[in-house]
């Protein structure tokens, strides 16, 4: 007999609309699972049971009124959606994964939180993240490490590791996440989830901590394509003050609707070599990509092997900008000594980057985006780029961390994730698709990237892959 966490987010929402399910019942179910499993999993930094119960009661009253009055409800009304602890919720502790901000309680919501409130979703808590979201693991000085439920000895990835662990273990149906160098796609890959890094400007990063570099964006993590697309609809939309704005869908269109549409015949480039010199791609990751290419061919798409020039220049530009962003995080003077070694290293390095070098790095991102738009993915060119999401299978907890040598650690992080940051630099949308598991039973994700502003094609193609080789029914033993 199915339990509530076996249902997709859309199934839960439909049950709430019909009156067959209650937001209070659903919320209590997930709160109980968090209480029972999270000390092992490390998914949450802060739990908000009192707020969740209040929001669930309000959502239930609103659903009852809507049924009586014949009104439509938002698509995820009454569904729990935790928020990553890099984003601010008024009145709820926001640590950004740092001991320096352990007691910080903001007084305003980030725009994404406002959209979640307007959508009638329920906040179970703030999910675990590494300090300021800087590394691709989720370990900090505040909470246990976030672990993939597929193997509790291994990391859930980062920096949205807590969000991914929560969804993959059935502690939440979907989750808000964010991605500045792969931080949605990396944990989606190691936790066996579908995750969307939207186009630059699709989702507002305001009002307080706008990412003026354009690298980072919020996005959804989910077990199914339709759930993720629906959460993207909830989160998307420009807000006053945004430095970037992605092209809007046509009036009346939704991303969720594209999860029900045939993508048509697409021309797809397949990359198996890392676009960074000296990076060896693990055979499991190559195999996952080539098997996905064969599946796409079988579905009628035109798939061609492609290699990008191996070049250090974008890696150098990314490192400079990433370091400046680290140096810009709001740390009180008395909190500097509490920072993780990697954070201190990046902040020191960022403080040394000149304004001219920062501008040159940003210009390198723009030229890369232009070259892909003009040379690789213009109208008539490739519609989608397929690649491994990561260069290796899920890493053990602590394996990527090197407090004694943060410079070496940063290099190791880049070697683990050589494919993901490319699309943060260009602003293109990219998704992790959880089609493959290796012989050890570990999820091995593949990545699809599309033209700027064209999440719709990625969603339709991913849904086609999901229908051809369903994955949501495959769950870890702790499920």
TrEMBL record:
Residues 65-74 have a biased composition (Basic and acidic residues). It comes from the Bacteria. Transmembrane segments: none annotated. Residues 25-458 form the Amidase domain. Residues 52-80 are annotated as: Disordered. Belongs to the amidase family. This is Amidase.
């Amino acid at each position: 007999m199915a339990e509530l966490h076996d249902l997709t987010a859309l199934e839960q929402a439909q049950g709430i609309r019909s009156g067959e399910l209650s937001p209070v019942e659903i919320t209590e179910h997930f709160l109980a699972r968090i209480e029972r499993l999270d000390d092992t999993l490390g998914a949450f930094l802060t739990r908000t049971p009192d707020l969740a119960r209040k929001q669930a009661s309000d959502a239930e009253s609103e659903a009852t009124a809507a049924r009586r009055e014949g009104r439509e409800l938002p698509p995820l009304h009454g569904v729990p959606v935790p928020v990553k602890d890099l984003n601010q919720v008024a009145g709820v502790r926001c640590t950004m994964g740092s001991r320096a901000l352990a007691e910080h309680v903001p007084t305003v919501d980030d725009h994404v939180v406002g959209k979640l409130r307007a959508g009638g979703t329920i906040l179970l808590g703030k999910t675990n993240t590494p300090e300021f979201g800087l590394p691709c693991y989720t370990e900090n000085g505040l909470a246990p490490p976030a672990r993939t439920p597929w193997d509790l000895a291994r990391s859930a990835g980062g920096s949205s590791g807590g969000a991914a662990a929560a969804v993959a273990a059935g502690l939440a149906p979907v989750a808000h996440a964010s991605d500045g160098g792969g931080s949605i796609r990396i944990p989606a890959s190691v936790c066996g989830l579908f995750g969307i890094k939207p186009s630059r400007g699709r989702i507002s990063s305001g009002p307080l901590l706008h990412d003026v570099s354009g690298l980072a964006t919020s996005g959804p993590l989910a077990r199914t394509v339709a759930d993720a697309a629906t959460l993207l609809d909830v989160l998307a939309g420009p807000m006053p003050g945004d430095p970037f704005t992605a092209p809007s869908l046509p009036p009346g269109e939704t991303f969720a609707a594209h999860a029900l549409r045939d993508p048509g015949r697409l021309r797809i480039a397949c990359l198996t070599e890392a676009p960074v010199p000296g990076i060896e791609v693990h055979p499991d990751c190559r195999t996952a990509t080539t098997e996905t290419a064969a599946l796409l061919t079988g579905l009628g798409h035109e798939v061609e092997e492609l290699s990008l020039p191996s070049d250090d220049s974008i890696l150098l530009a990314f490192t400079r900008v990433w370091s400046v962003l680290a140096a810009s995080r709001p740390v009180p003077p008395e909190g500097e000594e509490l920072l993780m070694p990697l954070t201190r290293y990046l902040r020191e390095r960022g403080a040394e980057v000149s304004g001219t070098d920062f501008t040159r790095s940003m210009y390198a991102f723009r030229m890369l985006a232009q070259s892909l738009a003009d040379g690789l993915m213009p109208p008539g060119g490739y519609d989608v780029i397929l690649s491994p999401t990561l260069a290796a299978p899920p890493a053990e907890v602590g394996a990527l961390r090197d407090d004694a040598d943060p410079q070496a650690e940063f290099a190791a992080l880049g070697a683990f994730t050589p494919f993901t940051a490319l699309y943060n630099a260009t602003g293109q949308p990219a998704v992790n698709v959880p089609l493959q598991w290796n012989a050890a039973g570990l999820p091995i994700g593949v990545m699809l990237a599309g033209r700027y502003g064209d999440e719709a094609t990625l969603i339709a193609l991913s849904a086609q892959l999901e229908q051809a080789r369903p994955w949501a029914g495959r769950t870890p033993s702790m499920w």
